[in-house]
Design a protein that fits this description.
With 151 residues, the protein is an all-beta fold. The protein has one domain: Kelch-type beta propeller (Neuraminidase). It contains no helices and 12 strands.
């Protein structure tokens, strides 16, 4: 289990090992504070954590696989105090203080990723997204079957 950032050291990466917190000697590229940013762990070939909404540049995202950091695609919209979740094995970023926009980080066959808008304000661009016409400030997301929300 890893610990990322925080107010006292926003670029820290630490690991919990044998009930102790140990810094691992690596630093985030961008400052990360959980009240503004969000993260999700994806389990593909290698487990990796995607962190978005860096303090220096609120559109920036980066990934950490336990050993290496790399920048991933920027979000199209700022999701300050938004939430991230896993959706069909991909990173989904939802809402924020000034937006109800939903974006998904998609990977192409050539391993190029980009964020695609699924819901842009009041315009739903993907029929699998639950529509919200209100601001989504610090939402909490739980995993449920999509049929759960359909009548």
């Amino acid at each position: 289990m890893f610990i990322f950032g925080g107010y006292s050291d926003p670029k820290k990466i630490a690991k919990i090992t044998n009930c102790a917190i140990k810094e691992i000697g690596k630093r985030l590229t961008y400052s990360f504070v959980s009240t503004a940013g969000s993260l999700v762990t994806l389990e593909e070939v290698v487990e990796e954590t995607i962190l978005c909404n860096a303090n220096e540049d609120p559109l920036k995202c980066e990934s950490f696989d336990g050993q290496f950091l790399r920048q991933v695609s920027n979000t199209k919209i700022q999701h300050n105090s938004g939430c991230m979740a896993r959706y069909h094995g991909q990173a989904l970023i939802i809402g924020g203080q000034q937006t109800n926009t939903v974006e998904i980080l998609e990977f192409s066959p050539y391993n190029i990723e980009k964020f695609r808008l699924l819901q842009d304000g009041g315009n739903v661009t993907d029929n699998e997204v639950i529509y919200s016409d209100f601001r989504l400030d610090a939402p909490i997301v739980f995993e449920a079957e999509i049929d759960f929300c359909l009548n």
